[in-house]
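Hi, here's the filled form for the chain we discussed.

Project: internal
Contact: R.S.
Residues: 325
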Amino acid sequence: MGAPRRPVSADTVHDVVLINPLGGALHHYTRQLLQTLQSSELQVRALTLYEPSISGGSRVKWLRDYVAALLSVRGSSARVLVTWPVLGHIDRLLVPLLTGDRRGAVIMHDPRPLVRAVGYGPIATWLAKRVADSGTLLVHSVLAQKELLAQGVRADVVPHPIIASAIPRRVSGTPIIRVLGQWKPDRDLNLLTALAELLPEVTLEIVGRGWPSVRGWNVRDEFVSEDELDSLIATSSAVLIPYRRYYQSGIAARSLEMAVPVVGRRLELEPMTGASYPYLVETPDLSDWADRVKAAVTSEQRTLERVRREVAGRALESWQTWGRS
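And the returned structure, exactly as it came back:
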């Protein structure tokens, strides 16, 4: 299960080889990225590995399979794109070394991981800064870019990939505001508690593994499948992204794909939504959050569908530029 899968024939001449070392956690994300690149008229070959929690194998085997996947690309004329840095900044050295592609890039979703991770310490960061080529690191938000710049590391911002979902939005009755995804320490519980007092006319629901109780919110502390997650998004009046700090949001991307309004901070979401998106919170002022949520709940479906087309178009154009550069 840990060996690379090759949906596209290896005999085809490819523009991009996409390597996903987290086949479970990044299944939807990689599908978004693959379809976006293919829509850019790029020939894409995808190699997928499964993390130990999915495959049942050891971390050593997972790393060995990752190295094998990188080596399998060597000699290809394609540009290599890794969807997750298995070894943090060390990947910026490994990718060109093992693939022979000095244009190869790594997408860094979290420049400052919330949990202990290999390859993000000062030595790995210092070495990558001095050896790795520029333009080899991609992020999905200006905040992530600024975080890396503070470490002396250059990264290019590209929008989170977006694809049009075939799942229709289904909203009726009392408005439902949802927070989705597993609990993380940077979720802003104070914000959620305060918002509950300002939004008495709507149903407030949190669904995700590990969440504590939050006053004013119905909390479901459980893992949900991909299909149920899609259903929860499609039946939401709006989806709230209540982080104190986040660098990209897969939940926000999936919501936009279904033309469901997303409310979150401008700094994190603007590269995905565009500057004119009406539900971006400008200030830490609680009333700003409440006003954006209320506006999102009463938004017209045709407006949301127009926004979805615009967001998908911007992502497509950006990734096409990257792929052809």
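Let me know if anything looks off before we file it.
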